[in-house]
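thread: overnight batch results

M.L. [08:02]
morning all. the overnight job finished for the chain we discussed friday. pasting input first so we're all looking at the same thing
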Amino acid sequence: MSVTSHALPLEGVRVLDISRVLAGPFCTMMLADLGADVVKVEEPKRGDESRQWGPPWAGQPQEGRSAYFWCVNRNKRSLALDLKTDAGRETARRLAARSHILVENFLSGKVGELGLSWPQLRKVNPGLVYCSITGFGQDGPYRGRPGYDYLIQAMSGLMSITGPVEGEASKMGVAISDVLAGLNASTAILAALRQAEKTGRGQQIDISLLDCQIAALVNVASNYLASGKPPRRHGRQHPNIVPYQTFRTRDGEFVVAVGNDRQFTALCRTIGCPELAKDEKFATNPARSENRRELIPRLQQAFEKKPKSVWMKLLSQAGIPAGPINSLPEILDDPQVRSRGLVKEIDGLHTVGSPLRLSEAQMRIRRAPPRLGEHSREVIEEWLGAEEIHAKAQRRREREERKKE
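M.L. [08:03]
and the structure it wrote out:
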């Protein structure tokens, strides 16, 4: 991909990030990757909780950068600010007045106690795009409840459709509800920012993990709404598409993903069973779905005759999607992933970079995930001016004088 400009789309956009852990930081990292100046506000002593969610660590444990923290906080600056104090809250309000975007993930209603709610800040910054990320949203009977990814996976119905057919409901191996909320938040923020640029009016964005996860059930939710039949687990199979699943070969398992009838005909020819594609019970996807219990064993019998590497080569040549069930070491060392440059190096450590590719902007890691409070002084000087430094020094002197008295 040729890049004709080094400018990033969000250069000059200021983001005040008072979120923590995953959904909010994931959202603001996407904005930072696109060039926004993201200032991460953290408690002075502890910082973001995820800093201590190790091992493993990115660097030394005392630096407070766990691998968890490392994965969602690149390209940001850290400002240590105590929002429990009047001075800290006042500084945050002044920073918000100079921001284009604010992202928070406090429990619904709690941010108002800090004087940093949307109704409070819109008075000093009418153009502010204010994004609130919570487990259940800003209204409804669950509005005040904390919402964690595991809980949301369970409540949303995702776990009920995940796992083996006869086994227990399973959670996904990654905090997918948080990631989806972060993605939806960044999309909504960019839309609201565009509108604010045209109208001068900001707005509050209400992102709920539960809403995002239910929306991400897509065809499974639609199947139920259309049929009235609750979905069941299909294990490694697909509820609507057949064959779209894992098969055993002579030396291991692999995945075959047949997306249409033409591919099914090619599959049958490749595995030496052309008659299956001509059988009216299997000729179309609706028919295959109805008769999967008869079809799948016949396909399985054919696949067991050769190693998976042979099948993957043959199916690829026939234009049929197929691939291995990779471990993380295998996929991160895969030639396609290496060619795309998805694994990046920061300060001698590796991380997964942004998946966004823009023809007119060079996506790059400009800053390593920050140490706690690493950029406090420079952020205050840039955003609020040198007088804030003097004001802080004056407050310090006043505290010292009061102690002497």
